[in-house]
Amino acid sequence: MSDWHTHVFTSTYTADVSGVCSFLYELGGMTILHDPSGCNSTYTTHDEPRWYDSKSLMFVSGLDEMTAVLGDDSVVIEDASKAAADLHPRFIALCGASIPHVIAFDYTGVSHLIEEKTGIPTIGIPTDGLKSYVSGVGLAEREWIKRFADVNTERKEHSFNLLGVTPIDFADQAHVKAMTASLQNDGFSLNACSAMCSTFEELQKIKAAAVNVLPTSCGRIAARYMEGIDHIPYVEGIPIGPYMHERIQKAMKQSEVDGISRTAYDENTEQGNVLIIGEEIYARSMAAAFNHSSLGKDESMHAYAFWPDISEGLNEDELLRRIDQADLVIADPLFKNIVHRKDTAFYEIPHIGYSGRIYRHDIPLFCSKDFKIEEKLRERK
What we know:
Structural class: alpha/beta
Number of strands: 13
Distance between the termini: 45 Å
Shape: globular
Strand order of the largest sheet: 6-5-7-8-9
CATH class of the largest domain: Alpha Beta
CATH topology of the largest domain: Rossmann fold
CATH architecture of the largest domain: 3-Layer(aba) Sandwich
Oligomer: single chain
Helix content: 40-55%
Mean pLDDT: 91
Largest sheet: 5 strands, parallel
Radius of gyration: 21 Å
Low-confidence stretches: none
Strand content: 5-15%
């Protein structure tokens, strides 16, 4: 059994149900969150920057006490069927929060019944509201690929997919476009971005790529599935600054040739006096970018990554110990309240998965080979 920890000073990361909704947002389906109501409003209010700018079919089942106690699945089946008859979605996805998990709701079985009744492809994604968005995005991506990806696509040389990409990690399309532009060099071209800025039809060709690129750990579930089934290797890393851009480009070329998956960031980022807190691949990529900048070449400064085990519970004691030892902390603004040393500098890079939409307009365009952390720090001073 995992050790769970009480959050006293820190916030919590976005839940798995929001990850599912975020991944499926642009793909033309109807997503049903099986829940009394609260998780749906949390997603739309805090976790989804696109909510007021573009439409998507996101519904909550309105699970009530008697339906839960009696296990009456016919209610959600009937409601889903009526909504689908009016809205004609391309597909239906069913996920849920903690109450369906407690009553052992059968996502696969109910999805089959909805599909049988509506004639619309339906996928069940067994979330429980207790894990992080990383799990939710990964499960949704894998289930979507299993059901809708074209297995007969011809492999395209020097092409890549971006996997696990949602606004929870990357805020908006500007970040995705900057990342894509940085990676489309040395003959490589984007096949599909899963699942921002690509259409349903483009994602159906996802198996045509020569290599998958994971700018976030959200893409690992799908990447490992495609590695095993389709023999497509993957590369982990974000093109933060020129060093990480070059490392990813080199790794993509190697992986396409030898079929071996690899990481583009440095492995020796586990200790130092510059602490970078965040999602794992982001934090490790940022640490590598820092250590190979003009600041990192100064022997008095060395960055390392700390990624809270957001699916198992954040150990605040360990986090506080690391922060107290740091001379510089790079993290979401909500971590600033636990920096107790007066001489510890703090540089804010907001993360929607941690602080929601509060600071979304303050997120720098870090997903680019042109991003230079040393210049940003000097500007802040």
